[in-house]
Please model this.
Amino acid sequence: MLLVAATAHADGQLPFAPAQYREVEQTYSIEGLVEATRQSTVSAQISGRIKEINFDVGSRVNKGQVILRIDERETAQALAGSNAQVLQAQATLQNAKANYERSRQLFEQKFISQSALDKAQAEYQVARAQAAASEAGAGQAGLAHAYSVVVAPYSGIVAARLVEVGEMVTPGKPMMVGFDPEGMRVVVSVPQYKLSEIGSRPRVMVEAPSLHRWIKAVSTTVQPLADARTHSTQVRVYLPANEAGVYPGMFVRAHFVVSKANKLVIPGSAVMHR
Model:
């Protein structure tokens, strides 16, 4: 039963408010899940044993912080060997260059033949190529050595830790999953027959039942692709930045405005639920 909620005045009279017809928005509601706009999995790029883990699930990580380390002894030895090869190649190059310069001077004085000069020039070019290859190999070894220190690509929160200290990893092995809490969106699957009603730029309110809160969407994107099995289209509803209490995987409802209609309405303060 609906009763007028009113407080008696001093003279015993009760206040009242007239019911009116007003244009009210009609909505289409559908359930969805929250996901992070930016979420990534950090994977190993070299083989090795995990020797240090600095963060766990739920930890806040700043961009550039070291999240874990892989035993670098093997890559360090490879880097030292590559650097030694570079020094050797540079010494060979210097010797070949000096020999070529001497041969050119002797050829100009007609003390050696053209074939001897060509041989010295070829040895010099080979030495240059070997030096360049050695430097490239050293750069590659240095890059692999740097991969032993895994840093956060952006500031965020650790969502999952997939390795333990002492565990052996290989290239491509997932180690940690993180997300940026500043950007969240709601993903819903809208039936194809409803797309024309919500439009290409729908107005949406997101209801978070667990938070007892309604959130106004910042923007909405209708994906230009349909699921052949469910005959539905994915719609992404973007939430305001840094929305408190909202995290990936949370259950919500998206309410799309589809039309307007005249309804008989009364003030909410005049309604009592019994």
About this structure: Residues 47 and 169 are 6 Å apart (CA to CA). The helical segments are 73-108, 114-146, 192-198. The radius of gyration is 35 Å.
